[in-house]
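for the writeup, i need someone to sanity check this before i put it in the appendix. the sequnce is what the collaborator sent (i think, or maybe the updated version? ugh). structure was predicted straight from it, no edits. if anything looks off just tell me and ill rerun, i have time this weekend
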Amino acid sequence: QVQLVESGGGLVQPGGSLRLSCAASGFTFRIYAMRWYRQAPAKERELVAHISSPGTNTDYAESVKGRFTISRDNVKNTVYLQMNNLKPEDTAVYYCNCPNYGAWGQGTLVTVSS
């Protein structure tokens, strides 16, 4: 059974940083690409970042380029999202996902506010 458990969210001031983690289990993590999504209140879920299976290729939404970094540890079966220079518009619930599976975790809430 595919399981994705996100953690690391919280309340941070504008300009601050957070590092999100997503622990994956129930599938062969190392052979699949992974993604981070986010969903702000009253908005649709949007793709934030994508990383290839070996971690050599990444892609980002324009709104987070230069501020967010996706990475992965294929030994720990974990994908990360380092978020720097956070802005109030980054406030959302953040989810990780494997595009080959339909499973979603519970998400982790990031609130950027002074």
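Residues 97 and 104 are 6 Å apart (CA to CA). The chain has no helices and ten strands.
thx in advance!!
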